[in-house]
Amino acid sequence: MTVTDAPAALPATAARTAEFISLTHLNPSTELQHQASRGIDLPYFRRYVRSLEDGGYDYTLLPYASVSADPYVLGGAVAALTENVKPIIAVRPNLGHPLVAAQKLATLDQVSEGRAVVHIISGGSDAEQARHGDYLSKDERYARTEEFISLLRRGWHDTEPFSHDGTYYKIDDFGPGFRPYGDTIPVSIGGSSDAAFEVGGRQADIFSFWGEPLADIAAQIERIHALADAAGRPRQRIWVTFRPIIAETDELAWQKAYRYADRLAANTQAGKAAIQRFLGQESPQNVGAQRALEFASRADVYDRALWTRTAAATGGTGASTALVGSPETVAAAILDYVDLGADLVSIRGYDTLNDAIDYGRYVIPLVKQELAHREQTGQRGTLQADHLGAYGADFPQVAGIA
């Protein structure tokens, strides 16, 4: 990427709008400061969700794991506590029949007046899938996902009863099903494996990536859009996830980032046995985690502000790459991804509630201000040219690596 003086014409790939996603946390336990409880701290949960509404977030992900709270129930709570935040329900196809899932999601969409989104998780760990009795291979899981999504949509859209005799599901004379509030419910898929791309290309309305260097994300976006074109489907919206570490200045942010990485590494080492038990092996099986660790092995810093040491510190066990800098630098870095076509940006911190509040106060408004300027003028503002981060000549000194 070349940084030029603003104003500058927008690249053809640039998304014209961007929406923000968080991940809802149930209690104050974080990767930096573990607490013993895995339960729901209701006052904390309420405060967290309301901070998303106050901060201008558009969506929140309700994740799923074999030991987590139920995302459908949490999604209903989010809908009741907010007016605008859209709950994204993580669903594993092995955990229920697709027409039952369609009914639950349509019900949530009705009570939230059209805010439901579903994120399909085919499963990146054989060990985690087995905890709920799923022993299919990875390729079989993705094949099941495709059939699952097809039946979800038929459950929402078919106006006459239908039967189905597939590889994984058999149905006799179902429907019509319970409809969503609007025309449909967006379906999201994520992943970096060939199977994820193949199914996502044919089925996804949204495709999700973890934060990677700009050139790599650009190639991934081009690949998934080409698959959609080949399938004759609308191109997917692109969702990219980051873990920003911000402070008043770039220098203070980098000092904070090093402290965080040290603490994350210590906590990962202390919990190594539990992590390996969860993974079922010493290293992550999913391709996204393997890519994150490979990027981290090559360099700590990429592009304007992408930092991979957090991925190395956590062993690549989840979305963990950071954007480091002042709010202005991090907002500029987010806009770099918007310029590639990402229009759904997940930002969730390591200090969960405080970061969610700070992003809403200091980062999201800057991005929205820049996008409003672009809409009015057709050109970039000055934010990206003024806040260079790692592109700046003084970066080694600022980041303490001189």
UniProtKB/TrEMBL annotation:
Chain ranges of the Luciferase-like domain: 35-343
Pfam family for this entry, one: Bac_luciferase
Keyword Hydrolase belongs to the record: no
Superkingdom as given in the UniProt entry: Bacteria
UniProt KW Flavoprotein keyword: yes
Keywords: Flavoprotein, FMN, Monooxygenase, Oxidoreductase
Protein name: LLM class flavin-dependent oxidoreductase
Organism per entry: Aeromicrobium alkaliterrae
